[in-house]
Write a structure and sequence with these properties.
Radius of gyration: 24 Å
Shape: elongated
Order of helices and strands: HHHHHHHHHH
Number of strands: 0
CATH class of the domain at 113-191: Mainly Alpha
Helix content: 55-70%
Length: 202
């Protein structure tokens, strides 16, 4: 009985000594390309490391200043850090580089709602809808902006259309109910995705 235990301990000690002699696993290499920095920035954003994500997206832009997705994604980080003006600046850069970038128009619209700029938000959501007529969240949030401007009938129409496109969108139901029951005030917008697509639309 005791012999079996001693043998087991001896094997464990031998294994530990063997493992100690093995070379340590290499650390992940530092990103080199714009894509690698952007990918790490996305991972850091998912982990809640906004400062690290900001640094990585900025480096990606320095290496490849013509990539709209990096501007769009950095805009999301800036917005999350409480810098809506910086976010709008980045979304605008993304749109200038790629006028058909649906998510950049949508994200800028959401940020403009937060800045109490319903007219600017309506323009952005309208453009997003023109580019993707089935973009339910754009209809829902344009309804929010229309309600903020006092155009309740148009707000209800947009939120209704959002529900037709996505019956599972709870935010659209909430926005539609708010437009029906309350006058214009200080509405809340649906949140843009934490991980906006690196290219293309929603």
């Amino acid at each position: 009985m005791y012999r079996a235990t001693d043998d087991a301990l001896g094997r464990e000690v031998a294994i530990q000594r063997l493992m100690a002699r093995l070379p340590a696993a290499p650390e992940a290499s530092e990103p080199r390309s714009a894509e690698e920095f952007a990918n790490r920035g996305q991972r850091r954003c998912d982990q809640g490391d906004l400062d690290g994500a900001m640094a990585d997206y900025t480096r990606a832009i320095e290496l490849q200043p013509g990539a709209p997705a990096a501007f769009n994604n950095r805009g999301g980080v800036r917005r999350s850090r409480g810098d809506p003006d910086g976010a709008i600046e980045d979304y605008t850069h993304a749109i200038a580089l790629s006028p058909g970038y649906v998510e950049a128009h949508y994200n800028r619209g959401v940020t403009r709602i937060e800045k109490r700029d319903p007219d600017g938000a309506i323009r952005d959501f309208t453009r997003a809808i023109e580019l993707n007529p089935r973009y339910a969240a754009a209809y829902s949030n344009r309804g929010v902006a229309l309600r903020a401007r006092g155009d309740l009938d148009a707000a209800i129409s947009d939120c209704t259309r959002a529900i037709e496109l996505d019956a599972r969108d709870r935010v659209a139901f909430s926005n539609c109910g708010a437009a029906r029951s309350r006058p214009a005030g200080r509405p809340g917008a649906q949140q843009p995705g934490r991980r906006p697509p690196r290219q293309g639309g929603p």
